[in-house]
Amino acid sequence: MADISKIDGEALARGVKVLGEGGLVAIPTETVYGLAADATNGEAVARIFEAKGRPRFNPLICHVSSIAMAERYVEIDPLSRRLIDAFWPGPLTLVLPIKENAPVHPLVTAGLSTLALRMPQGVARDVITMLDRPLAGPSANTSGRISATTAEAVADDLGAKVDLILDGGPCPVGLESTIVKVEGDTISLLRPGGLAAEEIEALTGMPLKRLDQRAAIQAPGMLASHYAPRAAMRLDVREVQPGEALLAFGPIRAQDAENVSYQLNLSETGNLREAAVHLFDYMKRLDAAGVATIAVEPIPHEGLGEAINDRLARAASPRE
After folding, report:
1. What residues pair up with 189 in beta bridges, in sequence order?
2. Which range is the signal sequence, renumbered to this chain (predicted)?
3. 99 has pLDDT over 90
4. pTM for the whole structure
5. Where in the chain is CATH 3.40.50.11030?
6. According to CATH, where is 3.90.870.10 located in the chain?
């Protein structure tokens, strides 16, 4: 049975103790709940892969509490520093060259010469500050399945595989972080997420380079099949088929939507930020209804819609 503690000073201290002893702690961030372990402890990091059933070739995001901590582990170029100054703490991960002899365990980087680094907001940052070590922290869910945005979702999925779940309530962003990589005068978008690409482009005055989905894995979240419910997913539907559940968006319904048994609307008003917050929770709830297929109404691709559609496309991809 999962051990869940509402967040207070005692719970935070307990979480730090568990992490310091090589344990796993599910921690809320502004994006989703993370399955955290001491990134310098190889045995602890290995437990993340075991608990999630995650392939070892898929790297992990490393979380820090300050720029000074980040500089212990990576080389930060001027353009990446501009992004850090503008968007940290927050839902932005940067893939940066790892320093020689940096004490992050090689399992975190999956053998790459780079490290995916982020500074989270809130409780997670407090825990890292108290521990004074970076945390490896992928989403707290079984690999390939729907990410958890509540403590209850973590418990339902991973249960006793986690030593402690810190309950901070629902995550306010609801999508994993945006991941980018700076190479010379090019910024590549490796994974769209909780920071809209347009905000990065507005700051830098540079277009983000989008990678082909078949590109080699350079960061977490790049597997073709990911974030998947047990049910099949059918996207951009204009007409609902008998027996399907409906993941709706906006005020206008797909044809025959009135006949579905299960329906949830990501945002009645068509607000993409609200839709992002609800995405994983609503996918999980419709999946729990036991339907064979979840039909998804069209969602615009601008702003956070790019990340929402990315998650839906990966959830609908053929299962590996």
Report:
1. 180, 210
2. none
3. yes
4. 0.92
5. 232-316
6. 4-210
CATH fold of 4-210? DHBP synthase (3.90.870)
Does 63 show up as a binding residue in the annotation? yes
What distance in Å separates the CA atoms of residue 209 and residue 296, rounded to the nearest whole number?
27
pLDDT computed for residue 319 by the predictor: 63
What are 282's two structure tokens?
């609503």
| Cα–Cα distance, 88 to 200 (Å, whole number) | 12
Whether CATH 3.30.70.260 fits 232-316: no
Would the annotation count 227 as a binding residue?
A: yes
CB atoms within 10 A of CB 113: 8
Q: Using one digit for the tens of pLDDT, what is the confidence trace for 20-54?
A: 999 999 999 999 999 999 999 999 999 999 999 98
191 labeled binding residue: yes
pLDDT value, residue 2: 80
First to last CA, the chain: 29
Of the candidates 284, 278, 289, 308, which has an alpha carbon nearest to the alpha carbon of residue 153?
A: 284
Residue 49, C-beta contacts closer than 8 angstroms, at least 6 positions apart: 55, 56, 107
269 annotated among ligand-binding-site residues: no
Q: Is 301 annotated as a binding residue?
A: no
| DSSP conformation class of 254 | P
For 153-200, write each residue's pLDDT tens digit: 999 999 999 999 999 999 999 999 999 999 998 999 999 999 999 999
- The structure tokens 């825990």 sit at 127
Helix (H) or strand (E) holding 198: helix 197-204
